[in-house]
Design brief:
By secondary structure, this protein is α+β, with helices and mostly antiparallel strands. It has 15 helices and 23 strands. The strands form 6 sheets. A 7-stranded antiparallel sheet has the order 3-2-4-1-10-9-11. Strands 5-6-7-8-12-13 form a 6-stranded antiparallel sheet, with helices on one face. The radius of gyration is 22 Å and the shape is globular. It starts with 9 loop residues before the first strand and ends in a 5-residue tail after the last helix.
């Protein structure tokens, strides 16, 4: 992970319309995945259901690399699901691990797109191994599929099988699935990962990880899927099963607002851009400093930098040029130095920063290596002072609910004080958002709590 950021696992998208013709839904899925590309850039895929037969296409790469007009034209049907992947389980280079995962079992086909991470996957895999299970991948998504398929053999419907599976699966999962005749959507009882739905004027029902994907296909947001809720769509009708809802009060991942989601998304009623600006304003009040300008680390640090400027009165300046194509280089990150990778992506605007005392705002710190490189680059550009402000609390504990930080060895804040970190990265001062300020960055979120385990070590599961 050359840019030293916490990475989310993936984005999911689904669309259902009994009157759809030709490749319309496949192309709508492509648009939805393009809007969710920030959630995963390793692999992507789609699956389409036509006359109860599911076909699919998936591969390693970005959405516009995997899908062409010719490929999309082959996929016709009345419902479709899509997925863009950043792995937390399984090989990063395994084409078979790309989703949607499509399996054949006694009751027919099942296609599944999953965002999250199953905590008890090893326990379940051991149980299924004893019964002769054969796997195609090392992903927890395949364990979810096995669990649902097993329950389906004793239940009267796929949605009942999903409801039973939810009592077996532990962890984070926002799922969009297709059986031969239904689309089934489920969100874990904690609601760790986002999932919402809306409708198009043509009658299509659309599900997605973020509202920006609804916007991309001109769907009107209706509501978020509730933690523990199962929604079934068949013959154009929506049915909701809420028997698993209300168990845990909800634990939405706070990092959706800090970094994961696009700033123009609304997650659980909260516009993400507002959250980030609020974080910057709170930082300015709690950790003021005398400086000449405020700059943000593109892209997610910019709204917080603007917020810091607003609250402090220090002018906001665009401090970096960004290479928008750096993530698409044919040179893999492990083939170049971390510093070379950062320099390829960001370049200080010397004219604006030279000789200045700078407040540098970023969203989060994992290892601190990228922050160190950026500060070095600013020094080389003639910056007089660098005061680093992080719009999240210190990240001290690993996450087991769908991000790729699974050990404390990756986290500089686990065994370093703020003063030690400041010295290590070469800043003149360093401050983080206070833990007590987290509720104030999501004032519009209603009826759901949030998970802050990566800051506190207080795990919901």
């Amino acid at each position: 992970m050359y840019d030293d950021k916490v990475r989310e696992e993936c984005g999911v998208f689904g669309i259902y319309n009994t009157n759809a013709e030709g490749d319309y839904l496949a192309k709508q899925t492509y648009l939805g995945l393009m809007a969710l590309q920030h959630r995963g850039q390793e692999a992507c895929g789609l699956a389409v259901n036509l006359n109860q037969e599911i076909t699919f296409h998936k591969n390693m790469g970005l959405v516009d690399e995997v899908f062409s007009e010719e490929v999309l034209s082959r996929f016709k049907g009345h419902m479709a699901i899509g997925h863009c992947r950043y792995s937390t389980a399984g090989s990063k280079k395994d084409k078979d691990a790309a989703q949607p995962l499509v399996i054949n079992y006694a009751k027919g086909q099942l296609a599944i797109a999953h965002n999250g991470n199953i905590r008890n996957v090893l326990e379940l895999r051991a149980i299924y191994d004893e019964k002769g299970a054969i796997y195609r991948t090392h992903t927890d998504t395949e364990i979810i599929a096995y669990t649902i398929a097993k329950q389906r053999l004793s239940e009267g419907s796929i949605e009942k099988a999903v409801a039973k599976a939810m009592h077996i699966l532990e962890g984070a999962y926002s799922l969009i699935m297709m059986s031969p005749s239904k689309m089934i959507v489920a969100r874990d009882p904690f609601g760790f990962r986002p999932l919402c739905f809306g409708r198009k004027a043509d009658g299509s029902v659309v599900f997605a990880s973020e509202t920006v994907a609804l916007d991309a296909v001109d769907a009107v947001y209706e509501r978020d899927v509730m933690p523990g809720e199962i929604i079934t769509v068949q013959h154009g009708e929506i049915k909701s099963n809420t028997e698993n809802c209300g168990q845990n009060g909800g634990k939405m991942c706070i990092f959706e607002y800090i970094y994961f989601a696009r700033p123009d998304s609304t997650v659980q009623g909260q516009l993400v851009n507002d959250s980030r600006r609020s974080a910057g304003q709170l930082l300015a009040k709690a950790s003021p400093v005398e400086a000449d300008i405020v700059i943000g680390v593109p892209d997610s640090g910019i709204p917080s930098a603007i917020g810091y400027s607003e609250a402090s009165g220090i002018p906001y300046v665009e401090g970096f040029g960004k290479n928008r194509y750096a993530g698409r280089t044919f040179i893999r990150p492990d083939q170049m130095s971390r510093e070379a990778a950062v320099r390829l992506k960001l370049n200080p605007l010397r004219k604006y920063v030279e000789g200045k005392r700078v407040v540098l705002v970023d969203d989060s710190m994992v290892r601190g290596t990228t922050n160190k490189i950026i500060i070095k680059m600013l020094r080389e550009a003639g910056v007089k002072e660098v005061h680093l402000r992080m719009s999240s609390p210190p990240y001290k504990y690993p996450c087991y609910y769908g991000t790729d930080v699974s050990t404390t060895s990756q986290l500089i804040a686990t065994d370093h004080t703020i003063a030690e970190i400041c010295e290590e990265i070469g800043a003149d001062s360093l401050a983080f958002l206070q833990l007590s300020d987290l509720p104030h960055i999501i004032p519009d979120v209603k009826d759901i709590g949030y998970c802050e385990a990566c800051f506190t070590g207080d795990y919901p599961i």
